[in-house]
Amino acid sequence: MNGGWVPLTLPEDFCYLDTVAPEVRVDLKYNGYDNFVGRPIAGYSGTRAILRKDTAAAIKRASDLLAKEGLGLLVWDAYRPTCAMVDFRRWSRTDDERMKARFYPNISKQGIYDGKYIGDISEHSWGVAVDVTLVDLQTGLELDMGGHHDFLDVTSYTSSSRITPTQLANRLKLRKVMTAVGMRNYSREWWHYFLAERGTVFTYNFEVRDDLKPAP
């Protein structure tokens, strides 16, 4: 007997990315302080990326294709609980702007929403989206993409004319491989990809943690 305690489980069609593609690096930005809010976001207490199984399989295919070129993937965000979206909106109504210079120097906090960098709903909460970049497998270093994760500015548009040819080529290399495995880019954020053929989706609000059990 366990006193009525029921282990927390993943939804049936979800998995940890590392069970499908253990070679993919993960650094969940919303579980730390290097994000546009400047603190851990509600719903993030773990370090393992969670995705719907078909999306995780697509990321694995992309990783395998890139490995042939000596490249790999680094994931900054995957499944995102809806409470995180509520936390973002709540923060947008405060006077906290400590991360403005690093993440949104040219717009207001309301401009983050007006510019459609973030909204009140997200494909992330459906488990079908990732924020991702390229890394060199030999050096372990990120490729120069002309800006960091969640730099909320027009220079982050995937085909921005305000970056160097090398930076643009790296963005387009990422887009090419992700498109090849069925992922689609959000054109205002070079790092954001979502499953193109996602079928029926549901919005989830379970916590991102490292000890969720697979569905029975």
**Span of the ends, CA to CA:** 18 Å
How is the biggest beta sheet arranged?
A: 5 strands, mixed
Unreliable sequence segments: 1-6
CATH class: Alpha Beta
The SSE string, one letter per element, is EEEHEHHHEHEE
Largest sheet, spatial ordering of strands: 2-4-5-7-6
Helix content: 10-25%
Return Rg in Å.
Answer: 17 Å
Number of helices: 5
Q: Which outline best applies? A: globular
Mean pLDDT: 96
What percentage of amino acids are in beta strands?
Answer: 5-15%
Q: What structural category do the secondary elements indicate?
A: alpha+beta
CATH topology: Muramoyl-pentapeptide Carboxypeptidase, domain 2
Write a brief structural summary.
The protein is α+β, with helices and mostly antiparallel strands and 216 residues long. The chain has helices spanning 53-67, 82-92, 100-103, 109-114, 165-180; strands spanning 14-16, 25-26, 50-52, 71-77, 129-136, 183-185, 192-195.
Give the topology:
Blueprint lengths: L13 E3 L8 E2 L23 E3 H15 L3 E7 L4 H11 L7 H4 L5 H6 L14 E8 L28 H16 L2 E3 L6 E4 L21
Parallel strand pairs: 2-4
Antiparallel strand pairs: 1-3, 4-5, 5-7, 6-7
Report what the structure shows:
The protein is an alpha+beta fold and 216 residues long. It has one domain (14-195): 2-Layer Sandwich (Muramoyl-pentapeptide Carboxypeptidase, domain 2), CATH 3.30.1380. It is built from five helices and seven strands, in the order βββαβαααβαββ. The chain has helices at 53-67, 82-92, 100-103, 109-114, 165-180, and strands spanning 14-16, 25-26, 50-52, 71-77, 129-136, 183-185, 192-195. The strands form two sheets. It has a five-stranded mixed sheet with strand order 2-4-5-7-6, with helices on one face. A two-stranded antiparallel sheet has the order 1-3. A hairpin with a 6-residue loop joins strand 6 and strand 7 (192-195). The chain is globular and about 45 Å long. It starts with 13 loop residues before the first strand and ends in a 21-residue tail after the last strand.
